[in-house]
Amino acid sequence: MKKINRRSFIAQSTMGMGALALSQWPLAAEADDAKNKQPLGFQTYPFREAISKDFSGTLKKVAAMGYQVVEMCYPSGYAKAGFGNLVNVKASEILRIIKDAGLSCPSCHFPMQDLTGDKFAKSMEFAHQLKLKQIVCPGLDTPGKSIADYKEASSRLNKIAERIKKEGMTTGLHNHTGEFATLDGELIYDAIMEELDGNLVKMQFQTEVIFLGYKASDYFKKYPGRFISAHLSDWNADKQSVPIGKGLIDWKEFFETAKIGGVKHFFVEIEVKQEHFKESTEYLRGLLG
Questions:
Q1: Which run of H or E residues covers position 69?
Q2: The domain that contains 180 carries what CATH number?
Q3: Domain range for residue 246?
Q4: What pLDDT, in 10s, does the model give residues 162-194?
Q5: Do the domain assignments include residue 28?
Q6: CA gap 40, 36 in Å, rounded
Q7: What pTM did the predictor assign?
Q8: Number of domains in the chain
């Protein structure tokens, strides 16, 4: 996603202005499941404003563009981010609405704080009712003042992942641009990868970091088998979001190397312009078809 990430959003408890309203979205692209070899997914976070008004209708409109998979955000952890209307809705009912839209939901974002202490059981109950396969943390719960902070948080996530594995699900960790900064002479992302148990925690790669000079394909090859999914967006050299296929990323290389990385799901996550999402969808459907 763009500069506003989930961690800072939750901490600030403010509504982002980049949410995409769907009321006037053109629906020229109709779903064609037979054409797409790789199911195409989307993250719900950019649609938080629309979801806060009409969850079912929003899912159906996005599905009609050619999507088969959705990645949710845990309502209790994202209540102030636009998912508050779903907090008191049973996960089984949320699943029914998702299926009614013609979508599957293998993955959901849970703030790390919701996977600890007394909150763990409630989160697992939601996850089981939603029939999730993957539980993804949007970021590490850490002050992030030193590499030691990140390693300590990574160690805690390993322990959380052990518990989640016993529940029959896989733990994932999502990156933002912050993890691709150097701290104490070390790239934060590499320090995290070194500390995490690759058998317990898989990564969800955010392609936004391309404008910092970091390619997903390089990391898929550097850490084979350690990724579970990816968030797709494209950017130009001026750090501006552009439609997928018109930026810096070599998407053919991306999808080829994603197999090496172990990526199972691809979720489009575009915060900026409505037309970018539609154009990106059409490009990806053509590429994956």
A1: strand 69-73
A2: 3.20.20.150
A3: 6-288
A4: 999 999 999 999 999 999 999 999 999 999 999
A5: yes
A6: 8
A7: 0.88
A8: 1
